Amino acid sequence: MAYDDLRGFLSTLEKEGQLLRITEEVLPEPDLAAAANAAGRIGEGAPALWFDNVKGFTDARIALNVHGSWANHALALGLPKHTPVKEQVEEFARRWDAFPVAPERREDAPWRENTQEGDDVDLFSVLPLFRLNDGDGGFYLDKAAVVSRDPDDPEHFGKQNVGTYRLQVIGRNRLAIQPVPVHDIALHLRTAEERGEDLPIAITLGNDPVMAIVAGMPMGYDQSEYEMAGALRGAPAPIATAPLTGFDVPWGSEVVIEGVIESRKRQIEGPFGEFTGHYSGGRRMPVVRIDRVSYRTNPVFESLYLGMPWTECDYLVGPNTCVPLLKQLRAEFPEVQAVNAMYTHGLLAVISTRKRYGGFAKAVAMRAMTTPHGLGYITTVIVVDEDVDPFDLPQVMWAMSSKVNPADDVVVLPNLSVVELAPAAQPAGLTSKMIIDATTPVHPDTRGNFSTPTKDLPEAKDWAAKLQRLLSEARG
Ligand SMILES: Cc1cc2nc3c(=O)[nH]c(=O)nc-3n(C[C@H](O)[C@H](O)[C@H](O)COP(=O)(O)O)c2cc1C
């Protein structure tokens, strides 16, 4: 099932019992964010939340926690809601192989219904803005898909980028944006600023659920997020032409904001409670001038709570980080079996691999650190044997505890790049990185006293089924 817009997905969530309408009147702060924060604390079937009775707003429709459980993530991919997380990752990886699927251009985008332009632009009259964490420095649009083009190659469809970059509302027509240097929009902005030019952008809010997934996905620079959305949806992604910039934007967005990142201007942005479970602090960031807003009648404002994991952000960027890493590694090392990079947006990754020869596992780890995601995030890589499941943390701990001789198996590399937000970096943006090789040494690496590993007895599987049957009979 492919959803063309957020509304279609919300109605499926409701039918599946995965959307909760809160009808009582609530305060915009702290109730909206506190409810979304709480959704991350009530277990893996948590619903999306819908609010339309918010004190102080006459006309608000707010959706929160839309991807915020494995059940909702499964439904976003058109899978049954009880699909186990590992199966979701495997299915995601299978669909990746259909990339690229050309998008379908449509004319009648619903966000053309209403427009504000020039001096009339006033975000406060379109969106019911509210703060998330109690130390945040302002209102944020934190689940937007932002479209920009390479100023040196504007007609290249693949180099047109769609990425999620959080935006602080700093005026009725002004935003501050945080382009992390390893991300594609930072390359676009750098090129524009080197030419002394503004960078046009289109900011799309309230998107179909697969668009939100691909916008936060670390793909190659010239790979199109729309063509990946088509692969994941199993149907071409519907796109439309944004009226001011001419950029390709999702057909079904609730709101499309167009303008420019003003060349070489910076303004204090933040603090903002981050995916690392820490605040960002206040930092100088580029500034957006909004020239046009297009929006559906009665727009739904979709926002995402993030902070101390797990939150919606962790579900949203879990599989979409694991799968690109798996595919990018396998392209060069077919021995790689699986990647789990679901903790704190993949600041840590666990990789299972077969080994060609001694030292191979460390090479795989170093390659992971130079993928698009690895450059800016992966700080620790744990490599395990091919028969250890990276998603089974007790197995990973077994490998770490039984296979690692720290003097040779732990490698620390100094002064590598990481997002400034990584709290342990020193200075911000630079860190040492660690490889923990928890694989069994193979020739010519003869270290250790590894005898034949014990395996579960062949009969144990049948016995497990029998024990479960007997137990449920005994319990009635
Ligand atoms: C909710 C959310 C907020 C994000 N905020 C930012 C941000 O402010 N700046 C940034 O550079 N990346 C941010 N990211 C991460 C990028 O969207 C993600 O790493 C993506 O792969 C970047 O793609 P790109 O390399 O094509 O630009 C955010 C991701 C999510 C899911």
What do you see in this structure?
The chain has 15 helices and 21 strands. With 476 residues, it is α+β, with helices and mostly antiparallel strands. The strands form four sheets. Strands 5, 6, 7, 8, 9, 10, 11, 14 and 15 form a nine-stranded antiparallel beta sheet that branches. A five-stranded mixed beta sheet has the order 17-18-19-21-20. Strands 1-2-3-16 form a four-stranded mixed beta sheet. Flavin mononucleotide is lined by residues 142-143, 161, 163-166, 178-180, 183-185, 216-219, 304, 313, 316-317, 372. Flavin mononucleotide binds next to strand 8, helix 6 and helix 9.
Q: What's the SSE blueprint?
A:
Layout: H1 6-15, E1 19-22, H2 28-39, E2 48-51, E3 62-64, H3 70-76, H4 85-96, E4 104-105, E5 114-117, H5 123-126, E6 139-141, E7 145-148, E8 161-163, E9 167-171, E10 174-177, H6 184-194, E11 199-205, H7 209-215, H8 225-233, E12 238-241, E13 248-250, E14 255-269, E15 283-295, E16 301-303, H9 312-316, H10 319-332, E17 336-343, E18 348-353, H11 360-368, H12 372-376, E19 380-385, H13 393-403, H14 406-409, E20 410-417, E21 430-438, H15 460-474
Parallel strand pairs: 1-2, 3-16, 4-12, 18-19, 19-21
Antiparallel strand pairs: 2-3, 5-15, 6-9, 7-8, 7-11, 9-10, 10-15, 11-14, 12-13, 14-15, 17-18, 20-21
Bound molecules: flavin mononucleotide (FMN).
Residues 142-143, 161, 163-166, 178-180, 183-185, 216-219, 304, 313, 316-317, 372 line the site of flavin mononucleotide (FMN).
